[in-house]
Specification:
alpha/beta
Length: about 325
């Protein structure tokens, strides 16, 4: 279910631009060395074969299988939906993915192709990936996607407004998009962490998204040079942990872009387990935004079950 409105304890924080700025700049500064060292140390954890099998299946079930290209066609989207619903035709025990993520004009195609499954249709919106459009245009984008059957909306924040210090504008746009989603779609808010320059900015953006009612906070569009990394994801996990401790409201996290291998996925799952715990170890609260990750997970899964490495020719090309 979509998250409820932020706790009344924070109502005064968003009463004005000045109040929100004071709150955000009053957050504890990020210890860059400590953050990166912790992320690196957690990334060295080794897991046993039985745990690896569990982690692979869990990771598959958390994937938002994505195609966001100008050359997308209805046929390509239907093929991706078929793969998400039945990732490995040779092994029906393979979990389904969490969602198929497409542009708004492909949401209806995905919805039809996924009929009868529990896979969600996620649609990017709000002038993805740059977010350079007037608010009425962004809201129309969301409205069209929801009307086409999107169960989840992945919006991008106005990074220009954020970096200019216009925090209330960013907050109010998220609130408006959340209202447009209504009860029909969960909202993921994308920060494009690679453009926010500092860890302090990522922490501030996380709090803006959570205060505005995001159901998920998401690292990236996957369209810039630096996307999801263990440190920025760890920082966002710490933010949702702290927010829940203060409000009782649980917010999901979605790293996206650059996560391509099983080894990468396991590192992120360790981050989740060690930072926020089992409450977030489901696709209700944690997702991977990915296009190529699924293939590597399938190859590693086949190797665990057969003892042989099948290679890329044994999985479909996305």
């Amino acid at each position: 279910m979509p998250t409820t409105a932020p706790a009344s304890a924070f109502a005064d924080v968003t009463a004005s631009d000045a109040a929100l700025r004071r709150f955000l700049h009053g957050l504890p500064g990020v210890d860059t060395v400590g953050l990166e060292a912790r992320a690196a140390s957690l990334g060295t954890r080794s897991i046993k074969t039985t745990s690896k099998a569990y982690a692979i299946d869990l990771a598959i079930s958390m994937i938002d299988l994505t195609t966001l290209e100008g050359a997308d066609t209805p046929g390509k989207v239907r093929a991706l939906c078929a793969k998400g619903a039945n990732p490995d035709p040779t092994d029906r025990t393979t979990p389904r993915v969490a969602a198929i993520c497409v542009y708004p004009d492909m949401a209806a195609t995905a919805k039809e192709a996924l009929a009868g499954t529990d896979i969600k249709v996620a649609s990017v919106a709000t002038a993805f990936p740059a977010g350079r459009a007037a608010l009425p245009v962004k809201l129309a984008d969301v409205r069209d996607a929801v009307a086409a059957g999107a169960d989840e909306i992945d919006m991008v924040i106005d990074r220009g407004a954020f970096l200019s210090g216009h925090y209330l504008k960013v907050y109010e746009e998220i609130v408006a998009v959340k209202a447009e989603c209504g009860d029909k779609a969960r909202l993921k808010v994308i920060f494009e962490t690679g453009e926010l320059s500092t860890y302090d900015n990522i922490r501030r953006a996380s709090w803006i998204g959570m205060l505005a009612g995001a159901d998920f906070i998401k690292t990236s569009t996957g369209k810039v040079g630096v996307n999801a990394t263990p440190p920025n994801t760890l920082l966002m996990l710490e933010a949702v942990r702290d927010f829940k401790a203060q409000t009782g409201i649980q917010i999901g996290v979605k790293p996206a872009g650059g996560i391509r291998t099983t080894k990468d996925a396991v590192k992120f799952l360790v981050l989740v387990n060690e930072t926020v715990g089992e409450d977030w170890l489901s696709n209700e609260w944690f997702r991977f935004g990915a296009s190529s990750l699924l293939n590597d997970l399938l190859m590693q899964r086949q190797k665990l079950s057969t003892g042989r490495y099948s290679g890329p020719d044994y999985v479909t090309v996305d």
